[in-house]
Design goal:
mainly alpha, 338 residues, ABC transporter involved in vitamin B12 uptake, BtuC, 3% strand, two-stranded antiparallel sheet, two-stranded antiparallel ribbon
Length: 338
């Protein structure tokens, strides 16, 4: 495990999250960490679609909000338990993702972004039009909890986050020998025309990317509904779609672990600034993001990964940067200048 330090850091991070309730019993910190884990899933789901496939989605809140509302409705009106409402809500988000993808397939770039941005606005109009079902501007309240304990809620969400992030990473891993989806999505992102000429059914894989992104965003939305026990129009606002974009760009787009890192750094930071420097919170946040992106234009995790890992030029295996030769094939990793 130490041979790949990035994965070791990820493992230590998950273990630290599991030990957090044993270190502090502060309801504020536990609740903040719980919400951050949900946002981490949400941010990583956006990275699957935009970072890997190149489909700029400005309406990711649509998947999140649909799943949250479906989970809340099923729980309140059909008395279904969270273990049923959350997967159903995620599947509803997949369905919506496919519906969005149909017109989105016809446009690219800026026009694609506008199309995806329009759908949450349309859903907000539907919510306002049927207040008896959706709760209107007040939303749906009284949703049942995930469990009887906030600590248990925290552990459930952290474990779900770990599983979801691992699945998204594995599905998009370009170095995987068993799953080739990541390579195909990268090819579509780099040059869709060339990918189509190579025999790749780009429409089918873009639909798959929309579905995967919608499913995991839906998982996050369902968890949000049952943790906070209220779902309102705020889940569909434009800022809800912009949050994962900021976290992903900050952490490193096209990595999966970058959005997770961005969420766990920026969201608690902004929340803490709201306590100690409310008037200057957004200013400090904006300056920090700009400085980081100027120094590390590819994102924080990509910059840090390049400092601790080195890819073998012969076999492509990841090695710790302190090694002089590859741990598998023995090729030189550092070339000294004469």
């Amino acid at each position: 495990m130490w041979a790949i330090p990035g994965r070791m850091i990820a493992l230590v991070f998950v273990i630290a999250l599991l030990f957090l309730p044993l270190i502090t019993t502060s309801p504020y910190i536990v609740r903040l960490a719980t919400l951050t884990a949900i946002w981490a899933i949400f941010a990583a789901s956006w990275d699957v679609l935009a970072g890997f496939t190149g489909q700029l989605n400005l309406g990711q809140a649509l998947f999140f909000g649909v799943a949250a509302y479906i989970a809340a409705f099923l729980n309140l009106h059909l008395s279904l338990a969270p273990w049923a409402t959350i997967p159903i809500g995620a599947l509803a988000a997949v369905t919506v993702g496919l519906i969005v993808a149909i017109p989105a397939m016809r446009v690219r770039g800026f026009y694609l972004a506008l199309v995806t941005l329009a759908f949450p606005i349309i859903l907000l109009g539907i919510i306002d039009a049927f207040p008896d079902i959706t709760g209107g501007e007040f939303g749906l309240a009284g949703i049942s909890r995930l469990s009887e304990s906030k600590i248990l809620d925290y552990y459930i969400i952290v474990l779900v986050m770990a599983v979801c992030v691992f699945l998204m990473w594995k599905l998009t891993d370009t170095g995987s020998k068993s799953v080739r989806l990541g390579v195909i999505l990268r090819a579509i992102n780099e040059d869709e025309i060339a990918a189509r000429a190579a025999g790749i059914n780009t429409v089918r894989y873009k639909l798959l990317a929309f579905s995967i992104s919608g499913f995991f965003a839906g998982i996050a939305g369902g968890l949000y509904a049952h943790v906070f026990r209220i779902v309102g129009p705020s889940t569909l606002l434009i800022w809800t779609s912009f949050y994962p974009i900021m976290w992903t760009i900050f952490g490193g787009i096209g990595t999966i672990y970058g959005p997770v890192t961005g969420a766990f750094i920026l969201y608690p930071l902004v929340d803490a600034l709201g306590i100690v420097a409310e008037s200057y919170r957004l200013l400090i946040f904006a300056i920090l993001v700009i400085v980081i992106l100027l120094v590390m234009p590819e994102g924080l995790t990509v910059w840090f990964r390049d400092k601790i890992e080195r890819v073998c030029p012969r076999c492509g295996l990841i090695n710790i940067t302190t090694r002089r030769t590859c741990r598998a094939c023995g090729a030189m990793l550092h070339f000294e200048r004469e």
